[in-house]
Write a structure and sequence with these properties.
The chain has 3 helices and no strands. The protein is mainly α.
Length: about 60
Amino acid sequence: MDINDWRGVAVITCLIAFLTIVFWAYSKKNKARFDEAANVIFEDEDEDKKPANREKRSND
């Protein structure tokens, strides 16, 4: 096998890995988990505005 054969194997391996990740990311069984993860940044927004939840900063 020469270098071009190994390059072909590498391309096929990367293509299979890429397609596997795409199918995993867009599968319906993961949709609920990904939707929840996408909205997690907005969950703490109301709690951060309350004065009791703010951390006290010390003057160092």
